[in-house]
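lol so apparently i was supposed to do this last week
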Amino acid sequence: MNEIRIFSPASIANLSCGYDILGVCLDKVGDEILVRKTKKRGVVITKITGQKLSKDIRLNVAGVSASALLNETEVDCGFEIEIHKGIKPGSGIGSSAASSAGSVFAINQLIGKPYSNKELVKFAMEGEKAASGSLHADNVAAVLLGGFTFVRNSSKNDYFKLNSPIELAFTIIHPQIEIKTSDSRAIVKKHVSLQEMTEQSANIGSFVTGLYTEDYELIGRSIEDNVIEPLRSILIPKFNELKKTSLYNGALGCGISGSGPSVFAISKGASTAKKVGVSMGKIYNELDLEYDIHISYVNDIGIKILEFK
Ligand code: HSE
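anyway here it is w/ L-homoserine bound
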C-alpha cells in the first residue's frame, strides 16, 4: 500500500470536570489527510488547504508528530503529507489534535501498523506540545481511540476508552474568534484548594459513573467546573448566557470545549441538541457575532480510512 486518505475528527477536551484527562471524539467535523510513500526518506508537507498554516515540518503539528514517530521507527522510505483542514485552529475543538493524530495514524497504516492506536498517542502528543507548549493527551487520545477517553497518566502511556451512551448528542457553538491554547492555559491558576480538588474529583467520578450506568442526568450534572471555567469563560463572549439558554432549552450540561472559545452542550438526542443550538445562535445573532454550530453524536470509531491503495 502506497497511499492513504483518512478523516481525522474534531474532539472536545476536558468536558468541564476533567481538565487534561477527559476527551470525546466527534463526528462529521474534521481534517482530511492524505499521506503518500516516497522513495526519498523524511517527511514533507506538500499541500495545505482550508487554512493558512506553515508547511515547515518543524512548525506544522502534523510534521512534528510524524517526525517523532519516524525518529523511533526504522523505515526505508519517506512520506508526503497533504492536509485539508476542516477544523479552524484556535477553535477549541481539537484542530491541532486532528492533524497530529491523523498524520501518525496514516503513516502507521502505510508501514504495516507496528504501533497500536494507543501507542500512537505519545507521538501525536508531540504535535500538541508544538502547538500549545504542553504535553496534554486528552484530544489526541479521543481521536485515536474514539468515543470518550480517559488519560490516567500520559507520561506512562496510560489512556483508556470509556463507555459512550448512544443517545448523547453534542451541540458545539464556535464564535469566530481565535483563542490560542497557550494563552488559555496561561490563565489557569496553578494551585487549587482542597475543597476545589474534592469537588472536581467528585464530578469526574460521577461523570464516568454516568457514562457506564447510562444515567444521562448524572452525566449532565457532573459537567461542572469551579476551577478553570470561571477564569477561561471571561474570554468567551456571553458564556453565561449561552449556558443559561442551553439548560433552559433542555441541555443536560454545558461548558467550555477544550481551551475555548467553542462552547459545548450535551443533550439526550439530536433534536434537543439542535434546539439548543438554535437558542445559542440567537445570543450571538443579537451580538452580530459570526459563529459555526455543529451537532454531533459521539464518534466511537475515531479516525476513519477513506481510501487505501
Ligand atoms: N486540556 C487542554 C486544555 C485542551 O484545556 O488546555 C486544549 O487542547
